[in-house]
Write a structure and sequence with these properties.
Layout (H helix, E strand, L loop, with lengths): L5 H10 L7 H5 L7 H14 L4 H4 L12 E4 L7 E4 L4 H14 L4 E3 L4 E5 L14 H18 L5 E4 L9 E7 L4 H12 L3 E6 L15 H5 L1 E3 L7 E2 L4 E6 L11 E5 L8 E2 L2 E3 L3 E5 L5 E8 L2 E6 L3 H6 L8 H13 L6 E3 L4 E8 L4 E7 L5 E3 L1 E3 L4 E4 L10 E3 L4 E7 L1
Parallel strand pairs: 4-5, 4-6, 6-7, 7-16
Antiparallel strand pairs: 1-2, 3-18, 8-13, 9-12, 10-11, 10-14, 14-15, 15-16, 17-21, 18-19, 19-24, 20-23, 22-24
């Protein structure tokens, strides 16, 4: 993420990723600037969970960038510039936007999407290699960013904790989960949920391959792996062609994903369907995305570690192919938020005030002016924050611009 987004990153990290009251957290928030700081803050969110963020926010603070230029629609002049937060006028403008929405009364909007954090990430189980855990963190961070750029606000939940009620559960580039969790995933799907699991062989020589009990029976496939060996991905790009409609993706749609990683992780899962249905194949005709219906839900198997590829590739974001796939997953699971933007570098999310007022935050990560059309669910209206006038589309955002609107349903 470009460092010019720093003034909004803390808002994104603490506000849009937490469900608790934010008054105390806001008091400790300061702007951030460097890309490393942004990465550390998001890694902190994944590694330590939501409850630890407010306690450690102060020690993660960095000085703001002098080169940030940002705008927020607020009054009849349409935008309030939020430039470097070292500028007192800019800090005042930024504060005005928070005062208008009465930020301390706001909480995260409900979501139907969750990102599962394997217990292998923060627990040193026997027969595991310590070098695997940092890679898991990179994968989870990449999946989180991909979901955000698909306008999906995922809950970050640990494998061994109680699971909230959601419709879509993401298990990105997963090598291992505990045996009871695989049963929980199946029960989650049987109750009407959609589970997405992408294959990952691991990034070291230790115990390579998926630690997935009952893989064939659970996903309705017959795998063709050999013990201790991996099936290397020989192409530099994966081309997924959809054989049937999936979410907003029509039959015949192709998605492209660049391949990266070391000789252990750059591998795929060769399978043949038994009970599962093939949704998409790769350019060699091999099954890439399959579904098995379980009860009133489904288990989706991706045979490539798409998130690992992106996590190990420089300048990977926006990873357009995986973003489109995540967006289709949400539509397939009926987990799509009320507002979406079909642009891989412009995204949105919501805050809800305690009186029920909903605010939509729109963030551009584009270094040039962005002109976007917001797609809204039926019965949803977008209003300017102060004038309450309906938004005239398309919406124009300056480079790295931020807009705040009121959402009425």
């Amino acid at each position: 993420m470009p460092c010019v987004l720093a003034p909004f990153v803390v808002v994104h990290r603490i506000v849009l990723s937490c469900h608790d009251s934010l008054a105390r957290q806001l008091a400790s928030v300061k702007s951030r600037s460097t890309q490393d700081d942004v990465g550390q803050s998001r890694a902190l969110e994944v590694q330590h969970g939501r409850s630890d963020i407010s306690e450690r926010a102060e020690e993660q603070v960095a000085k703001p960038s002098q080169h940030v230029q940002r705008r927020i629609p607020c009054d009849n002049s349409r935008f309030i510039p939020i430039a470097s937060l070292q500028n007192p006028a800019s800090r005042h403008s930024f504060r005005q936007a928070f005062d208008q929405i009465q930020f301390s009364r706001c909480e995260r909007a409900p979501t139907e999407v969750a990102l599962l954090i394997p217990s292998y990430y923060d627990t040193a189980y026997p027969f595991t290699h310590p070098d695997e855990r940092p890679v898991m963190g990179q994968i989870l961070l990449q999946a989180y960013c991909t979901a955000r750029l698909a306008d999906l606000p995922p809950l970050v939940m640990r494998e061994l904790d109680p699971w909230p009620s959601v419709r879509l559960l993401l298990c990105p580039s997963t090598k291992a989960l505990t045996a009871p969790t695989w049963q929980r995933l199946e029960h989650f799907a049987a109750a009407g949920g959609t589970v997405y699991v992408s294959f990952f062989a691991g990034s070291t020589t230790a115990q390579r391959g998926p630690w997935w009990p009952d893989l064939d029976q659970r996903f309705g496939v017959h795998h063709q792996l050999r013990y201790g060996l991996v099936e290397p991905v020989e192409d530099d790009e994966i081309v997924l062609t959809f054989e049937r409609p999936f979410g907003h993706l029509r039959a015949g749609t192709t998605l492209r994903v660049r391949v990266a990683g070391n000789e252990h992780g750059r591998a795929f899962l060769p399978v043949e369907p038994t009970e599962a249905t093939v949704i998409a194949r790769d350019q060699r005709g091999r099954p890439a995305l399959l579904t098995k219906h379980v009860g009133s839900g489904q288990l989706l198997l991706m045979t490539y570690p798409l998130e690992y590829f992106a996590a190990t590739r420089p300048h990977a974001n926006p990873d357009e192919g995986t973003i489109a796939l995540y967006s289709a997953l949400a539509q397939e699971a009926a987990a799509t938020p009320p507002v979406g933007i079909h642009a891989p570098d412009v995204w949105c999310d919501r805050l809800v005030r305690d009186d029920g007022t909903v605010f939509l935050w729109i963030v551009s990560e584009r270094e040039t002016t962005a002109v976007v059309t917001l797609e809204t669910a039926e019965g949803t209206e977008l209003l300017h924050l102060t004038t309450s006038e309906p938004l005239l589309q398309p919406l124009e955002l300056p480079p790295y611009g931020v807009a705040v609107l009121r959402l009425v349903q």
